[in-house]
Amino acid sequence: MSQFDTIINREETRSIKLEYRERLFGNSEVIPLWVADMDFAAPPAVQEAIVNRTKHPIYGYTNRPKPFFEAIQNWLSRRFNWEVDQSWIEFSPGVVPNLGLAVQAFTNPGDGVIIQPPVYPPFFGVVKDFNREVVENPLIEQQEGYYVMDFDHLEEVASKPENKLLLLCHPHNPVGRVWTIEELTRMGEICKEHNVIIISDEIHCDLVLYGNTHVPLATISSELAEITLTCMAPSKTFNLAGYSTSYMIASNPELLKAARAQVMGYHLHMGNTFGALALEAAYNHSEPWLEELISYIEGNVDFVTDFLKSEMPEVKARKPEATYLLWMDFRSWKLKSTELKNFMVNEVGLGLNDGVTFGKEGRGFMRMNLASPRSVIEKAMKQMKSARDRMQKV
């Protein structure tokens, strides 16, 4: 039995995943497989570090000394062969806040920000919220749910001088792509030619599956590093989202200076007492835990995709190259987006992410979070098949 088979009761823990069910789905009983945190205990080393710190009764302002930065540097060196100088790193409370700060740092109201839908919904929000223009460069869906970038269209929109910034999702949420060096290089060359800065959201970089390899955009060449601000965090990897410990990396001092000015301007630089300790324990002592996690997630992906092929072949889902998120294609059911969402909630009993929230390209899709014990995922799929069978009999 895997440690990840253990069902942990998250009731009464102020978990958004559970406590927002009534608000979002109108039903507090659905199995919550939506918001992207995991139903797994954090690594033992993280738990131990936090418990030890709580024994001291004062939780005042804290700093991030050299060991915090060394943990990041050593992690990036071991996992990605990326040698990062401490002066390139700036703390921030989260990757989504990073995106909003970057939009303010590198664009003015009315400027265009390029995104590549279907994409994580906050990519739209951080642009619109600050009165910038969303410029869509939609991904191209090829056979069997495989997505690629539309470089011809990217060239077109990047060439317009009012479009100053590209928000890159790498690996991509929700379609699960790990962009190749060739894809990243071509995208980067287009942006470099047209003076478009790239904000690379790499929060899922540690969660690569099936032997795929994540290559940080900034490591490909010095030319691409000059126009790239990378956003990372241990939150998805080690289930630490509640500790708000993220960071930005840029070797170009001007980019980092502009981003840092936003962090300091909003007084976000302090962090919290436990976040830095959690990061250090995760990066320094929890690599074996991560390897077991990846194997378990692959098992969940295999189960669901095999189940669909054998029991519901009209529903398509390509195995993601990274993340624990499955992009499920229900277009064959011929349901409107609202009908599909209501069916999942009221007939299936599942709380999934509605595909249209990722852009119009997501109509007919749902995103399913597979970072739960296998028994929960099995129950969810059995409920889905039963409801689908009932629908077909009507």
TrEMBL record:
Protein's UniProt keywords contain Cell membrane: no
Keywords for this protein: Lyase, Pyridoxal phosphate
Cofactor field: pyridoxal 5'-phosphate
Entry-linked InterPro entries: Aminotransferase_I/II_large (IPR004839), C-S_lyase_PatB-like (IPR027619), Class-II_PLP-Dep_Aminotrans (IPR051798), PyrdxlP-dep_Trfase (IPR015424), PyrdxlP-dep_Trfase_major (IPR015421), PyrdxlP-dep_Trfase_small (IPR015422)
An annotated Gene Ontology molecular function: pyridoxal phosphate binding
EC number of the protein: 4.4.1.13
One Pfam family here: Aminotran_1_2
Signal peptide stretch: none
Highest taxon of the lineage: Bacteria
Keyword GTP-binding: no
Domain Aminotransferase class I/classII large: 29-381
EC top class, as a word: lyase
NCBIfam families found in the cross-reference section: C_S_lyase_PatB
Family recorded in the similarity comment: Belongs to the class-II pyridoxal-phosphate-dependent aminotransferase family. MalY/PatB cystathionine beta-lyase subfamily.
Protein name, entry field: cysteine-S-conjugate beta-lyase
Organism annotation: Natronoflexus pectinivorans
